[in-house]
Design goal:
two-stranded antiparallel ribbon, 36% strand, mainly beta, five-stranded antiparallel β-sheet
């Protein structure tokens, strides 16, 4: 997968390869059927993303105590090793959320240098 970057509306788009290879990040959530610890509750307890290189990040929903902790992981399996509670928690991937048109960067305003002041 590659992204289109448009830096000048009058020039042709430049194709770039996202860092980490051709695969986009994968979004997932943690679904807990039982809460043995009594802390996170059941249902969707966290959101996460798995990067193309295998690293991952999670953000806990914080529904019960208002703490939406963000944690980085070396690999997805580590999340289940720590928070899986013997099969009480499942990691469920969402469908693909990224496409070429989603990765198109277009300047909304140009500064004096000719480069975009902000991207959208």
């Amino acid at each position: 997968m590659s992204a289109t970057v448009t830096t000048d509306p009058t020039s042709a788009p430049v194709r770039i390869q996202p860092r980490g290879g051709p695969q986009p990040p994968r979004v997932f959530f943690l679904w807990r059927t039982k809460d043995p610890s009594g802390v996170s509750g059941t249902g969707c307890v966290a959101w996460g993303v798995e990067w193309p290189d295998g690293h991952a990040a999670t953000q806990w929903s914080g529904d019960r105590y208002g703490i939406a902790q963000i944690t980085e992981w070396e690999r997805v399996q580590d999340i289940l090793t720590i928070h899986g509670h013997g099969g009480a928690t499942e990691l469920r991937y969402l469908g693909p959320l990224v496409c070429d048109s989603c990765l198109t960067i277009q300047p909304s305003h140009r500064g004096e240098s000719g480069t975009p002041d902000r991207m959208r």
